Structures are given as C-alpha cells and as structure tokens.
C-alpha cells in the first residue's frame, strides 16, 4: 500500500454530531497507522475532515501530503519529511500557522499550495531550492513573504486575491530563469522587486493592484506575452520595449 485516501467521511450527514464522530474516527485511524509504523510507508496521503495531524517520521516515504478543505485543521506538527514533494492545504480555511522551522528539513518540495488558508506568515523557504509552484491565492491575512532569492527553479508565484499582501523582502527576485507566471492581482503591493533575471517570464498579472505605483524595468523580459495592468489606477508609468507582447491590458 502506498496511498492513504480519507475523503468526505461525513458527506452523508452535515450535522455537528456526525462531523465530530467522523473527525474522531479519522484521528483514531491515523493514530493506529502511526502506532504500527504503516503511515510512514505511504507515498501519498489525502485527508479531509481532520483537526490534527500526528508527527510523521523524517524517514517517511511520503511524497505528497494533501490536506485540502480540512476545515478543522489549524496547524501542522514539525515537518521533517525528507522526500516530500507536494504539500497542499488549499481550502483549509482555518489553517493558521506552521512551526517556525517547518521547512528547514524540507529540501525537495516542488509544490506548496496554501490557497484560502488563514496564514499570516510563512516560515523561511531558503532551503526549498526545488520549489516550482508557490500558490497563495486568497490568503487574506498574508502581508509579506520571506526571502525568495534562493528559489531559482520557481515557475509560478500566485498571490492573486491575497488582499492584505504588501511586501516582498527581496529587492530583486534574483536569478529565476524558470519563472513563467507572476500573479499579484488584487494585492496591496506598491512596487515589485527587480525582474531583470527572470528572462522567461511570460505572464505578469497585476489586475486590480490599486496601490501599485512603480514597475521595475521590463526590457529583459523578451518572452513576456501577457502584461495585465487593468485596475492599477495608481501606476504612473512603465517602460517596456518587447515586441513579443500579445496582450497588454491597462484600462
């Protein structure tokens, strides 16, 4: 067995008693697996309706940990899963916090999806050098990101509708030749770090960035095909000489 799938366990009855029973059942099941060391052999675990996750061994075979729409989940234990490539908490609307050093032991994650959670801060991601997709859609309390300059393999950064987001800690995104899409729509950013080494950026989406005043120089982005500035009503001016742009929206 390499997968554990526990999904919609209380779908037949939405009452509170049924939900409590279902949550209790899931926790007992997960604890049982932990006690017999089976849980650490799973490569993929998909769970909904769980309020607390047990500590998983650093020797676990876990590659994908999918906790979508776990409405009762508020935090995770320390993560030491050395093989983990995907962590998906999207739709877990009460999830708030990671342990401070949660990502220090994670060197292989390729996808981190925290969309529609309550996270206000992220732990440092500097060790996650394999990260490709950082998805933070509708993270309504997130105001800033940790340093991202070591994430040279990043392909997608999506902060769309993270309406409290204001600040990047980096003055430059650094060397990110794989970055294809940057979506900051409906955030509170005033300016964006330099993109001069993001040569392959194709989509820069800044829809509804009401406070955006300054764009970095975009001349190095020869492959940029979509630049959406619609609703960026505070933007004064920008310079871009690329002839490859297929869609420019600024109304």
From TrEMBL:
InterPro entries in the cross-refs: LRR_dom_sf (IPR032675)
Domain of life: Eukaryota
This protein's name: Nb-arc domain containing disease resistance protein
